[in-house]
Every structure is written in C-alpha cells, then in structure tokens.
Amino acid sequence: MAATSRTLSYDALLTTTADKIHKSGAIQDAISNSNPTFAEFMSKGKIKKKTVGGDQIRVGLMYQHNGTIESYSDYDQIDITPQDGITTAYMPWAQYGGAVSISGIQKFKNMGKEAIGDLLKEKITQTTAGWSEKLNADLWDTANLAGSHPFTGNSAKNVMSVPLYIQGLGSTSGGGVSTADDDFNVGNIDQSVEDWWMNQCNDGAGATTGALLKRTMSTMFNDCSQGPGGTPDLIMGDQNVFELYEASMQDQVRYTFKDQASSGFENVAYKSAKFMWDGYVPDAELGANGVLAGGAGTNSSLYFINCGTMCLYVGKDHDWKPRGFQTPVDQDASTSLYLAYLQLICDNRRKNGVIFDIPLAFS
Question: How remote is the C-alpha of 272 from its chain's centroid?
C-alpha cells in the first residue's frame, strides 16, 4: 500500500528537523566533546572535513630533512643536490552507520510540529550517545595488534586507532625497548625496515615508586620531544596509573588546564602536556583493551601524544549527516540513516610514544 499523505508529511517534517539539527553542528559537537581524546583533538582543530573523496587518504610523510642547507660566503657554490626524503602512506576510509527510527504509535502520541520535534531531538540525543561510545572505544581499540599485522577491529572495518599508531608491541625507536617482533606495517610501510616510522616505546616495569614513575615519564616526554615537530601535548592513561600519579603528588602543588576541552574531564598538567585518563585506554604490552571495552589487562600504560601529528578526517557530506526519513511499505515506522566516513591519520609516529607494563601499585 502506498504511503498516505499524513505519513509523507511526517517524514518530510522529521527530515527537515533532522537537517536543521545537523547543520547547527549539535551532533558533531556532542560527539567530539563526549570524551577527552576527541575533545582535545577538536580544541586543537584536529578534526577536519575532507572536501574530496578518493579510494584512500593520501598522507605525505617526511623521513629526512633537506641536506643542502649550509652557510656560504660570497661566490661559494650552493649545494643543489636533488633531495628525496618524502614518501607517502595510504589509509582507507572507515565507514560508520547508525539509524534513528520513530514508530507510528510514537508519531500518534506526539502529534504536532513541536511535539514531534522534541521527540526527534530525544532520539538524536540517544543516538549521539551511542556514536560517542562506539567511536571512543574504536579510537583506543588494540584490534589485532597482538597478531602479525595491525588490522583494525571489526574485520578491518574500524578506524585506525591510537594503539595501532603508538604501539607497545614490536616498536622501538630512540632509547625504546622492543617487546615482540617488528612485523607491524602501518600505512603499507614496514617499520622493521623504515625505523623512522616507529613510535617511541619504553618499558615501565621499573616504575615501582612515585619518583621512578616520574623519571620514566620524563624520559618518554624527552624522547618524543627530540628534533623538530614539538613535544607531546596530551598524555592518556587508564584510571589506575592516573591515580598512582596523583598519589605521588600529594605533597606538591597541582596544576590543571581550565580550557574548554577539559570541561568535565579531570586532568593534571605534566610539563607542557595535559594528562587525563580514559577507561578505554588499553594495556599496551598485552594488546588488551581497556576495562570499559571488556579488556583484561594486567598492567597500565601511558600514551604520549603529539596532537600536531594526528588528525581525524571526516568525509564531505558524510559527517553524521541524516539521509532522510522514509517509511517502508511493510512497517509502521520511519527511519533515517546517519552515516560517517572517518579515518585517524598520524603523519609522524616518531613524535609519539607509550610506556607499557606500568605496575598497578607502588611497592
């Protein structure tokens, strides 16, 4: 049976209202500000819309500086040797989808433009909470890190996660310690051969006191700060290591960040970085997801993130944009899909690091 005029008018009203909510930025803001990692990326302008599509996202990587730079005098020749030192990584888009549905009886009980609009806002708020939880979990998913390759979760459909870029297994750079084989290709670049593409990685097993934990953190911070590109500005750990650090500062003055991105999230200033915790932060040594993701890690980890090297790309017209409400011929309900094409990109893994195997308690 064809849709009635009343059904068509309700679907049109729902679609128009949903479009207005989307254009206001309310959905994107709610998702971005729902967890500390996304909020920090958002505040630093590291969530960007891609204006063009393409099969994959092309990322330019600089692995060597221009070696022709030198002082000279008068008519000295200047080195014009062609420089290489730039390569490319390719990352596929990750597709995410969700749906908002309103049954016929719900429409009947909420007749009128204002009432149906309020109902839709409630439904969108519920869906947004689901998006926030899912994306935060995937952002910290260890996926197949403990396997032979760092494929993303859900059979390689999820976004690249922070632990896949900043590996606690099989990655060593600078003074880092490798805990497994290095057969982890990220962006089709073999880091066992191209060591410039490795993140910093240190064992925290010796951090058995507050003083030793701080010393280990200082070493990692400095390792990530070597060379151009800045220093880590975000440190993420689980609740346990955050509380250990707090306990080590009981007799000291604590400084916190009061910016908008920190609203609702507890933080401590460590040097120039913001230190926060999230229940999804995994055990980097075992490749076990955080407690909120049902993981069963045995020790804590600390991720030192240089947000300048990270960017969450969002596809044009696929930024949680509603696809319009429709009523199927065999169901008394209207449904609209909400789609997002996403990918987390890191263009300089060497400026990021992780301390793994941090004890759960001081000795």
Answer: 20
